[in-house]
Records
---
Amino acid sequence: MAELVTLTIDGKQITAEKGTLVIEAAKKIGIEIPAFCYYEGYSLQAACRMCLVEVEKMPKLQPGCTLPAAEGMVVMTDSPKVVEARKSTLEFLLTNHPLDCPVCDKGGECELQDMVFRYGAGESRFTEIKHHANEKQWSPMVYYDPARCILCYRCIRVCDEGLGVGALGLTHRGVHAEITPSNGDHLECDECGMCIDICPVGALTSGSYRYKSRPWEMNHVGTICAHCSNGCKTTLSIRNGEIMRANNRDQSGINGEFLCAKGRFGYDFVHSEERLQTPLVRKDGELVEASWSEALALVAKKFGDVKAKGGKFGVVGSARTTNEEAYYLQKFARQGLGTANIDHRRSGDVASLLNALAGKRDALATVADLYTTKAALVIGSDLSQQHPLLAFQLRANYRHHGSSTYTVTRGPVREDSYAARSIRFEAGDEIGALDQLREDLSKHASVVILFGDSVKGGDVAKLVAFGDSLGVGVKYVCLMDYSNSRGAWDMGLTHEYGPGYEAAEQRGLSLPEMLAAKDLDVFWAVGANPLADAELGSNDAFVVVQELFLTETARRADVVLPAASAYEKNGTVTNTCGEVQRLKAGAKVMGVKTDLEIMGLLAKEMGLDLGIWTPEKVFEEIRRTVRGYNVQLPIIVTGGAAPTQPVSGQLAVLPDVSLVRSAEDTLFTSGSLGRYSKMLNAAMEAPGKLYKE
Amino acid sequence: MLLNQPHPLETRVLTRRFEYPQKNPIWVDEFVAKQGYEGFRKALGMSPDEIIEEVKKSSLRGRGGAGFPTGLKWSFVDRKSSKPKYVVVNGDEGEPGTCKDRVLIEHDPHRLIEGCLICARAIGAERGWVYIRGEYRFHIDILDKAIAEAYERGYLGENILGSGMTFHLSTHTGAGSYECGEESALLESLEGKRGNPRLKPPFPATVGAFQCPTTVNNVETFCAVPDILLNGGDWYHALGTPKNGGTRMVCLSGHINNPGVYEVPLGFNMKRLIEEIGGGVWKGRKLKAVIPGGSSSPILTADEVDIPADYDSLAKAGSMLGSGATMVCDETTDMVKLLARVMKFYAHESCGWCIPCREGTAWLAKILARMDEGAGMTRDIDMIDQLATSMFGRTFCALGDAAAMPTMSIVRKFRNEFEAKIGSTEVFVPAPGTQPLVVL
């Protein structure tokens, strides 16, 4: 327990740990000390001088952001001297700051505006000509207007300290000082746009949003990013059904202040010109537009006929549709169509992990655990590229708590820069490489082990045995690719397992087997594009595809049903750590239906009774029936993340691990969605490579 | 090469080996012949605490401008730390009007090396740097040669003079920033970073160069140390006034008959300094004002200069001894122009780190340039004072204060001159040299 001190702020007594910054101590008792450069979690600057406070027995005003609380200290945050100092600081700031608020992107949500409103003077005495510098484009994502910049250095710090990229620096001096990319005139970085989010003014603006809308014209919808498996909350700003921007305005998600390029700029696939907005039906060898009723009737009839004659179905689900859709799809296939041929493309072997955990509870790490664990071991993943939030958490843990990170990877990764130890291995040898780390890891009170697709099957069991041998608390993260990769497993979108890893009554065909089969009657792909890199073996199969775009699979289809994206629907998804979070519909795209609705309508058309197909009802059923998913509803409804552990210990059947393969997406690729994001493709770094050279 | 002749009223300690006219720097043979490195030899026989005690006794105070007691500063260095300790010499000499460090290096470079060695002995350092401003190329060459000589003769390197002590010294070139004269900015620059000042505390004595305990002192301060060790702290102390020991270098400049660098005891009367050593105001004119310690020290009017020039007396008079740059203004001096020029300097040199200094200096420079052009407005006068007051004591480092202090003093003491510059119309005229926002 740290030493406690009692100090007085504005007449209120407060007890705080010795060394607590006065600005933080004041916050605890509801007193705001205004500041620009101070940002919790990043290094102290004391540059903006906005937080100056008066302290008894100190002749000069003191910056509250660097002043440690001391016993008996008497602080005044609203004395006439302090009020005057704030006024003059703001007056100084506004001398060279362009007063272009009516056209500034930040207008309405600008910290400088708010500060001037609350603490500023009523008039300006500055009558000279302002210093001006021209706006610059640093990358397709990031623009910088030096005239608006107040030099709080938040962007430099978030990039350097938060991301470990260090793409920004400071050049020139005095009023000419400005933020400059380390490359001189352009960025070569993660393009995460965190600098834009953290900028208190309109100096850093987003390439996809700038000068398009006013903040108050939009509705802000907090939902979960549609791209990778980390499950960051992204806030969509919607105007007339259109996503104008995505950012981290609502920092309430598991990602806190973090958001990467995909979550921030990768939403634009939603409004791509190539979105399918009407069903397509193959007539005379050509896909032609059709009405929903025509298309659904056609599919329902075909499904009914094939089912009646005992034909062969092949059903492929997606790692991106919601839990409800995945659950409903497997139910549709197994109960409605009576087929066991159902699968999806799997990118991590979570089944073997659950099997190997052998009765352990709380053995799956959450995203929050990565920030508090004493040590982390990353095996076979370029975390900063593939799992940027997890990488951010580990780095923040290292910065704030001095945790140790160990990397066991095929090539150099960014984590090496602060890793306690880095080990390179030849493919297939990662478990052997671990022995070298046993001694180091067992020194830490808690360890989180993160492993990629190269650790699967028996290796997972060996890994868990290794974890057990450390004799400390070990938690695991099975790294997977997409927003609901974990949920697809949990909901039973595999030929081995039903929901909650119950062994499937009958083991059907796996995805490669379906593709290879010569006698499929129906091939049904929901949000999946298996024909991107494979041929369908059965020439006569009737192919039904629910998709956003005319993908390779959709081009082969007999009926294409235009589906809604994750940003247009409600439901839940489960991230790679097994945390269930709620999707909220934001955007509206004309002509499309959610996969759940499509399936529901098909079921109705076929006269099947698969239950009500609203997301809420299906989720209720999931909570009732799927092991581990009986999560507390208030957590989900209020936008929280509820951890799940469907099962721990012996599974009745073991998974087919030969099917586990990561797509190895980088920061700028995201499966078929990434192909339709102009912003992601515009990044100079795209598509990038895993592992630095 | 010194322009001025020595003056009989000088007390020559630091300059005692100087030759007039100077032919060459005093190289190692001549230096050793004239008691060179004897202070250091004596220090080798003393414990670190004894050395620091001796320096404390001398009441030597930092000659860079702030006047912090040197012995105390050395005693703050965490000698028990397992990290290496460093000696850093501040030879940035950026304060306008100051030219003493260059004279010391130019004439007697080994004196500085000896001072560093004694300090290294006292704080347990094995590595030191002399940070010299880039403009002093000529002096860097002299010092480099002197350092090479010292290595050759075994005064630097390993096992110095058979004592087992190790000390390495080299020069490091600044790149032309006033701010790098501030010790923490200097350390940043030394480490190869942008010369922004650091957050204090921690002070360099605990976290200095490369995160290690470091002592940073001015060239003149280090140069005073050898004689303190040689003759004792008490001897040095007795040269000056009770709380202000020793001698100091004065850089006399401005409207004066004999400008130059002189060495006088602390507490030497400023009026006598100007009239007797400096030969009085030039062209038979009357004295108007004196800037006593570099451009950042508050100005003194002719009536205020009959005081002993030491740290305490000047502080009492509302100014400061600063870096020893004493600039004399005759009766024809245009105080608005003077302040405009000074502020142009500070606006140019502000690093931009904190808001009041960055924006305040630029704003003041614009107002003053405009006033100087004859387009001043009545309200400008009070505003100049208010803006400077708003900067004073609220900036990240002392540069903001350095810009605010002369401004406040000049505008208050010479208000009539500002009033005389008010334009005939109260119409805003942009300051010259600024770029229009939009060019049509």
---
Amino acid sequence: MNKEKIEKILQELYQYDPSFKEDERGLREILSQVLASRPEVKIDRNFQTFLRQRLAQKPAPEKVFRPASIFPFHKLVWGAAGLALVAVIVLPLYSYLTKEEELVPDSNMAISRVSDEAFGEITASATNSSLRAESATGLGGGGQSTKDSTGTSLIAPDFAGYKYVYSGPLALAGLDNQVLKRVWPEDDKSVDTYLSGLNFNLMDLSSFANAQVTNFTLRQDRDQGYEITVDRKRGTISLAEAWEYWYADTVASKEIENLTATDALSDSEVLALADKFIKDHQVRLTNYGSPEIVSSPAGGLMAENYVAESVSVIYPLVVNSRFVYLASGEKAGLTVNVSQRYGRVTSLISLSSQSYQASAYPLETETANILKLIEQGGIYPTYYGSGSATEYPLGEPSLGYLFISQENEELLVPALVFPVENAESYQKNVVVPIVSGLVENILGERIAPAVLEGSSGVDGGQGTEPGSVNASIVLPD
Amino acid sequence: MTFCRLIRYILWRLETLAKNKNMPGLSQEREDFSLLYDQFSPKIYQFIYFRTFHKETAEDLTSQTFCKALERYDRFRPDKGGFSAWLYAIARNTLIDHYRSFRPAANIEDFFSLSDRADAPLDISCRQQLLKVRKYLDQIKKEHRDVVIMRLWDDLPFAEIARLAGKSEGACKMIFSRAIKSIRKEVIISLIIILSSLIKT
């Protein structure tokens, strides 16, 4: 390498001053010595990645309008004419142009481009809903348990099969092929050093090299106080009511009464309470759209006059002017639960930092594969049972993102979102990813439903260990 | 605001809106910058390292360089020179600011003498190499050293060196050839001295 470089530099020198040729050997020696003394240094990969992330998270600089000085209009008359024009035409035009558009809350979102297929293989096996909490229905606002207070499973409803039908045109060419990966934020490392000093003189926590504070909890010591959880690694903040400051007395005195229709808040009241909470605590909604009430699915199991303890409001996440969806077809985003009993916000879930890396992936070209996923209602297979399935027609698709969580990373995969044109449907949208690798994985991994044989039920038959299932699994041909 | 400026403002605003519409969220500028970062960060890091000889300082100044570049990226005009020259100029100015924290009147040519200072951190692994290269570079004027280093270590073409040094390409070539001549002359003189002392003994 140095040899080539020496030759090149010698040629440059000869061109400039041919007398250099007289002592080529000495010249070569000098050049090779200077080149050899060049420190062999390479940029640290970790530093390079860190700086890349830091730059990606840096807000875009404010664009400044700098007009070049052109025609000098110094005369008063021109100034007055200009002002009159401003008043009549330009101000309304300016106000129109500077008006906030409804679906562009992500204008400052940091997205940096990385090489193609940089996030490896995308699979849908671990898709979860960390971006969306289920609406809370009972005291305490948990709402995610599938078991009642006695620990037994709820009785499953009759199984119903669904089939989704899309009969419109399907053009896959030219769609967005950028998969986005959320980048965990870098923050102040001094917190780690400071907190490792809080050891009650029990042991030297700082002796554990590179120990980091991954998350911490703050608790308000007051009536109806909140417990705030900060996940430092993932850059998320959630809060929920501190249970003992809200319900401990009520539960102890056994004075819980079901809510009645008169306790129910109107949608506008719920939205106003959520908005006030957001405003009071300066929650940054830069990347979230207008709030929506999360309505309960039609034909639920609850009694007709049942009034839920709380109502959920979602501020949908908007990335590249598109909504992000969970595999279930629900919009992902920031969830705020409002208690109808107390008329207060009880929890706020999934407020997360929004910096992404973008990587191009090949798109699915087989329309038949997309249609298969449409029919089954998305990325999870549907079991039609022995009877016939109810058919739900789908409307024109729009572009969105499918939220996928895999191996400690969160991905947004470009997807077609088909609205279900039937008010009775539990699923509001069918979300179909368009990245070919993921489509192949889903279709390839599709396992036919297992039929349990020789078992009295999932509680286990006679002689089984508690909690185990004694069943033989027969896979259909 | 004059009428003409208003018209220009409206046109500028329309252009910005049109751009935003085409690239919602994922700004084209950010995307371009990201690709340029991948291409230039190793080179800029080396450029700074060769003038500080200290890993942490080089990383700090590289960060500063790219942060400044990102902040000013909308002012970068490709028609007034390439991105490389623009970025190296930012790195060079960042280095000068850094040197001036040690010595207020310092300039970039002083980097060899500054890196010898006790209060300037220096990687141990570089000390030997610095001694080696000093044997040659101490022979030339300090304002010529940077041109030699830019050509030999940073591998920058003369056109780019000229833009950075604020000189013509011809002048840079002349500086380089004179610097090499001085080194050669000094090497020959020292060889004669060594030989004559050997003959005497």
